[in-house]
Amino acid sequence: MTPQQRAESLGLKFEKQMPGYLNLCIRSGNQLLTSGHVSDLKGKLGADLNTEAGYAAAKNCAEKVLRSVWNTHGTLDGLRVLKVLGCVNSTLDFTEQHLVINGCSDLLHQIFGKDGDGYHARSALGFVQLPTGAAVEVEAIFEIKG
To answer: What percent of the chain has pLDDT over 90?
Structure first.
């Protein structure tokens, strides 16, 4: 099964997006760089949200990133995930940002393969606040293979 087929089998839907104020995904050479995509879930990890809720929020961000990549590239096929930056809206004493961002990484592993094109570099950072009060924000860099 191809990455596009795997994503669709997991229930992801892809449709053309209208351009907005900022470019959600831009191609530069053989790379696709995404803007930060915020979760629908609002709140702060370590206060009103737990790690499990944050994991789901990070997965939601990954789905949005993939839709933006699809809109720019036309497919998820032929791509390699290079880098993920995960930002977690969290309290000063919350230390499970990496477990939250696993929600994004795990989805990318499912679609692109954990040992293959989905094996990526990653940063998971805590922030005192994110735009719109979002729980999580994720951006990513993909390589267009071939």
So the answer is: 97
